[in-house]
């Protein structure tokens, strides 16, 4: 990758300069070059995100201020046993 110490950033260079720096052509890499770069640098993939337990995903829906206010109001109503307006 180009770092600030290597000169101007890629967006400030001409297309020919960028292609020369990355040792490629406007047509892209052929299969052998792509395989060599994949072997050297690894696949161009993001790591899999950690899976959350379904119960935690369900409980995350209740992590909202309005939900907490409504649950608090329900608790106060239950403590006062004032069921008329509910």
Question: Would you write up a description of this structure?
Answer:
The structure is a single chain. With 86 residues, the protein is mostly helical. The protein has a domain at 4-41. Helices cover 48% and strands 0% of the residues. The protein contains 4 helices and no strands. It has helices at 15-21, 31-41, 54-60, 65-80. The longest helix has 16 residues, at 65-80. The model has no long low-confidence stretch (mean pLDDT 87).
Name the features.
single chain; 86 residues; mainly alpha; 4 helices; 48% helix; elongated
Topology:
Blueprint lengths: L14 H7 L9 H11 L12 H7 L4 H16 L6
Structural class: mainly alpha
- Give the fraction of residues assigned to helices: 40-55%
Order of helices and strands: HHHH
The proportion of strand residues reads under 5%
Most strands sheet: none
Q: What is the CA-CA span between the terminal residues?
A: 63 Å
Average predicted local confidence, pLDDT: 87
Q: What gross morphology would you assign?
A: elongated
In the predicted model, the low-confidence regions spanning at least 5 consecutive residues are none
Number of helices: 4
The counted number of beta strands is 0
Rg estimate, integer Å: 29 Å
Brief write-up:
The chain has about 90 residues and is mainly α.
